[in-house]
Amino acid sequence: MLNYAALSALCSVIREGSFEGAARALSVTPSAESQRIRLLGEQMGCPMVVRDQPCRATDTGRRLCQHFDRVQLLEQDLQEALPALAPQGVARVALPIAVNADSLATWLAPAMMAFAAENPVLMEVAVDDETHTAEWLRSGAVLAAVTTVARAAPGCDRHPLGSMRYVAAASPAFVQRYFAKGVGAGTLARAPSLVFSPKDALQARWVQRLCHRHVEIARHTLPSPQAFVSAAVAGMGWGLHARAAGAAFEGWFAGRAGAGHPARHRAALAARARRGRAARSPQPRGAGRRPLRADPAVKIRSRPAATGTCRAGAPD
User: What is the pLDDT of residues 237-275, one digit of tens each?
Assistant: First the structure.
């Protein structure tokens, strides 16, 4: 049988990042905390923690932490159904999830706020590219993930959430500088792009779909949704922006400049390519006749599907 006091100690060390912090959280001495985890390691026959700054769980330790989190959620459900089990009230439990930055910056944050207001949970959110969040679930680091991976992880349920619409956008000055002659392989290779992280391949996939071949593009890396949009507004580069984020940035995606409002005037994100299918040439068909230009209506789209995956036992 597993020693759940030792599992609680292990989870606290990983959550707090140190044995001292975990000891304070559990109101025990650091030596007692270390002893519990040492005994757990002896029982499992392998180390539980990598003593680093911060402390990290080994693969086995991470699996045990996930098991403990699931048990805590199940016990919470039971306490809500049988109040006599928790006379002092239902305790809050950790709910670790992995999400992509665009979802967190748009629709997910309000949903989490509403959920946390109604349920005794403590949200622990890890941010990663939407094509990699499923790995957090498979590794046992989280109990749920927002991902573009269609197949559910072993032991998990899959719940389609819908799709996010993206628009390729840049400031009018940037468009005039780099795309005055159209949007094609040649101009895209010279124009700096914006990416959220080295894992962010959305821009590269969009370029390949537009040009029907691989094009090596220059990249600025900005791991912040707000900085990503601000950089586009300032003319630092072009990028694919979540359409849903437009409301959060004063209508920047609509490109309507408010009278006497310099920020809105600079924020006229209006990169638009000619409608229709791109030709199999360095430039889209008709690029010489109708280049990318400033326009209130942004037309370039990419729609990666977002899929929610929940570990069995986690609340839906």
Answer: 999 988 876 544 444 444 333 333 333 322 223 333 333
Task: Report the CATH architecture of 166-302.
Answer: 3-Layer(aba) Sandwich (3.40)
What's the whole-number average pLDDT of the chain?
Answer: 77
Cβ contact 134:145 at 8 Å: yes
Residue 284 identity (one-letter amino acid): P
Rg over alpha carbons for the chain, rounded to the nearest Å, is: 24
Q: pTM for this one? A: 0.66
Measured CA to CA, the distance from residue 32 to residue 49 in angstroms comes to 15
pLDDT of residue 312: 35
DSSP secondary structure string for all residues of 72-91: HHHHHHHHHH-GGG-TT-PP
Q: SS3 of 104, please? A: helix
Kindly report, residue by residue over 176-220, the tens digit of the pLDDT.
999 999 999 999 999 999 999 999 999 999 999 999 999 999 999
Sequence spans of domains, the chain:
1-65, 166-302
Q: Where are the alpha helices (DSSP H) in 57-171?
A: 59-81, 101-103, 109-118, 133-139
Helices and strands in the chain: count of H runs, count of E runs: 12, 12
- Report cis status (omega within 30 of 0) of the bond before 54: yes
Q: Report yes or no: 131 and 273 within 8 Å, Cβ to Cβ.
A: no
Q: What is the pLDDT of residue 246?
A: 58
**Which pLDDT tens digit goes with each residue over 80-129?**
888 888 778 787 888 889 999 999 988 999 999 999 998 888 999 999 99
Query: Which residues does 131 contact at the CB level (< 8 Å), separation at least 6?
Result: 147, 148, 149, 199, 201
The confidence score (pLDDT) of residue 139 equals 78
Tokens 């630092």 sit on residue: 236
Q: Does domain 1-65 have CATH number 1.10.1790.10?
A: no
Within 13 A of 185's CA, how many CA atoms are on the CB side? 13
